[in-house]
Recover the amino acids of this structure.
């Protein structure tokens, strides 16, 4: 299957492939027509930049005009892995990949099938794959090959690497300015990043590079999704029942008196890593039921849950309002 995927990529086509975070929709990052196919398939805005996936850290210099020591240290510590680095782009990088910006996002994923594909591409003369999540723009990200096929149909070649192990998109750190900035939270522990950097991570401010998944509404199901504080869940469900609504419920802690009429219950793991692995799949399952609402128990405020809180807040903003 990898050989078939490389042939398609060399021909300027797109393929689906697994990473440890979510499944990606990949094209040769150096082929403008191929990159345009990603945008057309996803319905992605042209100014929304893509992340370039590379086989190993040695590829940084091909895509970035300057690789600061911080990038070298982070890559050595966390690549392959769920970390994207934003660096000043090399002149040869396509504007379509960067969204017209002077920066480029780079990542080396840890999924073994992704690494085999990237290595085979490098040997064939493709030195990076532009690969956003393999779903329609704004929809819930895919964490299985079946999710990708459901979005794009059987005509798209998808490498099946099983369920993803991380489950939400990579952490994004901007190293293009004077100080490192956290542009998107993920499951990578921020304390680990700070320990390697030797300095705190700043937060995104006005003028920070645009990056994938930074819009207020994103990762959204068609069904309206609402975050509800745990103490308010029982009354919120009762309110829905009185209104004759059918709801799905994603909870970490079972309610002591759980109403069951017109309620579909999804019990979620209590730890952040387990929760992340299941989140998008459970939202997709709930969405497929075509209910009136998806109620999600609000998450802990601990730092380890930051990436998950981010995804659910954006999902709640976009849910029920996408095309």
């Amino acid at each position: 299957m990898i050989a078939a995927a490389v042939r398609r990529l060399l021909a300027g086509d797109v393929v689906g492939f697994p990473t440890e975070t979510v499944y990606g929709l990949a094209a040769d990052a150096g082929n403008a027509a191929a990159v345009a196919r990603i945008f057309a398939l996803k319905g992605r805005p042209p100014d929304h930049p893509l992340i370039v996936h590379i086989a190993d850290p040695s590829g940084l210099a091909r895509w970035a005009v300057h690789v600061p020591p911080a990038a070298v240290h982070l890559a050595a510590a966390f690549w392959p892995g769920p970390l994207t680095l934003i660096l000043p782009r090399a002149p040869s990088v396509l504007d379509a990949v960067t969204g017209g910006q002077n920066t480029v996002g780079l990542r080396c994923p840890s999924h073994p099938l992704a690494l085999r594909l990237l290595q085979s591409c490098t040997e064939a003369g493709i030195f990076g794959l532009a690969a956003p999540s393999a779903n329609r723009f704004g929809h819930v990200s895919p964490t299985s090959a079946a999710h990708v096929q459901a979005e794009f149909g059987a005509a798209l070649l998808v490498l099946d690497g099983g369920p993803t192990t991380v489950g939400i998109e990579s952490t994004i750190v901007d190293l293009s300015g004077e100080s490192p900035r956290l542009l998107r939270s993920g499951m990578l522990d921020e304390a680990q990043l700070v320990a390697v950097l030797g300095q705190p991570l700043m937060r995104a401010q006005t003028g920070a590079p645009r990056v994938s998944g930074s819009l207020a509404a994103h990762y959204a199901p068609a069904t309206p999704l609402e975050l509800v504080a745990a103490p308010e869940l029982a009354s919120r469900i009762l309110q829905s029942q009185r209104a004759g609504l059918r709801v799905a419920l994603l909870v970490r802690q079972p309610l002591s008196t759980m109403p069951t009429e017109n309620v579909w219950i999804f019990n979620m793991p209590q730890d952040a890593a387990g929760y992340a692995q299941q989140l998008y799949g459970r939202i997709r399952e709930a969405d497929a039921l075509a209910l009136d609402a998806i109620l999600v128990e609000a998450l802990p405020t601990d730092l380890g849950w930051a990436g998950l809180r981010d995804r659910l807040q954006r999902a709640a903003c976009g849910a029920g309002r996408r095309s």
